[in-house]
């Protein structure tokens, strides 16, 4: 059984050149917390510095998101902005390519140092660039781990995050959870973390049983909204209480939209029900709390629908977050097929 995710995502807004240093130090600290050996924390700092420098020089409304890997041991550094976009992202990865009269080694260096690097960009009305650099410990790399992404952010002005997220791979399936403690701040965080501990205690149980266990564990807390998602080879099961949304995306559009049953986990929770839906080849399942504006799914641009899960989570958190609320988005594909 393999799982990760504990602390919220660290966020660095790149609105001034001084943010480049902060991005580097944040990535180094997270890498050390992930117990990456040797020079890897310093490499994480260089990757973050290069991505932040690109945002500072070329982008509008750029932000770096730094966190432990969803699965495996390592650090993930996500970059997102609102344009103007890159006409040829692959060309920009070549050493020596520059549009600013510099040495032009930034993105090329990131690609060389990262265990895995993905970048997508679009122009026009939906302009933006999204990048994901992952740096792993030796032996901590599997193809199916690329099919997961998540971002979890506290409300602006809050030190504690009332949301949490988790993903677990077992031999039978991939199971994901998004948890939203009622309200904000420390009491909400305590409820979400209690639900998280219960989930990790036995995540392979039938989804209604997992929710019933959470309901008992949260009786002396504020309670929470919970969404559980189990992905298999060609379908997914959703079981949720409260306003946690589940969707299935393909390059053709949003195929399914589900919301949890009315109620609160920990306070008179109704009997949980499971809703199944097909998950065709290449489809991505998404869970998100109500800190992500649900209107994003009414008519998402094709460029967003085609994003791999790590970039999709960054794009939704960056572009559709409600800053006055805790916000979490988790995107995943079935582990029984390569992403």
TrEMBL record:
Task: Extract the InterPro entries matched here.
Answer: HATPase_C_sf, HATPase_dom, PPM-type-like_dom_sf, PPM-type_phosphatase-like_dom, Ptase_RsbX
Signal sequence extent: none
Domain PPM-type phosphatase, residue spans: 146-334
Pfam families, alphabetically?
HATPase_c_2, SpoIIE
UniProt-listed Gene3D superfamilies: Histidine kinase-like ATPase, C-terminal domain, PPM-type phosphatase domain
PANTHER family from the UniProt entry: PHOSPHOSERINE PHOSPHATASE RSBX
Question: What protein name applies here?
Answer: PPM-type phosphatase domain-containing protein
């Amino acid at each position: 059984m393999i799982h990760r995710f504990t602390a919220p995502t660290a966020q660095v807004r790149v609105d001034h050149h001084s943010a480049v240093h902060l991005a580097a130090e944040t990535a180094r600290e997270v890498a050390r917390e992930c117990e990456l050996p040797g020079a890897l924390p310093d490499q994480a700092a260089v990757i973050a510095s290069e991505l932040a420098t690109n945002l500072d020089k070329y982008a509008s409304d750029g932000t770096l998101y730094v966190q432990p890997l969803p699965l495996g041991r390592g650090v993930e550094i996500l970059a997102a902005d609102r344009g103007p976009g890159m006409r040829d992202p692959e060309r920009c990865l070549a050493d020596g390519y520059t549009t600013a009269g510099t040495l032009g080694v930034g993105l090329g260096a990131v690609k060389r140092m990262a265990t895995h690097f993905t970048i997508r960009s679009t122009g026009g009305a939906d302009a933006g660039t999204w990048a994901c650099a992952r740096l792993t410990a030796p032996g901590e790399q599997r193809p199916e781990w690329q099919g997961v992404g998540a971002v979890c952010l506290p409300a602006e002005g809050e030190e504690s995050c009332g949301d949490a997220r988790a993903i677990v791979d077992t031999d039978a399936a991939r199971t994901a959870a998004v948890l939203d403690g009622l309200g904000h701040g420390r009491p909400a965080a305590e409820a979400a973390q209690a639900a998280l501990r219960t989930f990790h205690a036995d995540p392979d149980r039938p989804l209604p049983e997992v929710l019933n266990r959470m309901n008992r564990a949260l009786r002396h807390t504020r309670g929470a909204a919970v969404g559980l998602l189990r992905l298999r080879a060609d379908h997914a099961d959703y079981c949720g209480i409260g306003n946690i949304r589940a969707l299935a995306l393909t390059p053709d559009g949003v195929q399914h939209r589900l919301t949890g049953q009315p109620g609160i986990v920990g306070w008179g929770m109704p009997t949980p029900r499971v809703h199944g839906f097909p998950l065709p080849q290449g489809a991505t399942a998404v869970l998100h709390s109500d800190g992500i504006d649900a209107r994003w799914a009414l008519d998402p641009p094709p460029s967003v629908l085609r994003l791999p899960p790590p970039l999709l989570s960054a794009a939704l958190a960056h572009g559709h977050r409600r800053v006055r609320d805790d916000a979490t988005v988790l995107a995943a594909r079935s582990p029984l097929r390569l992403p």
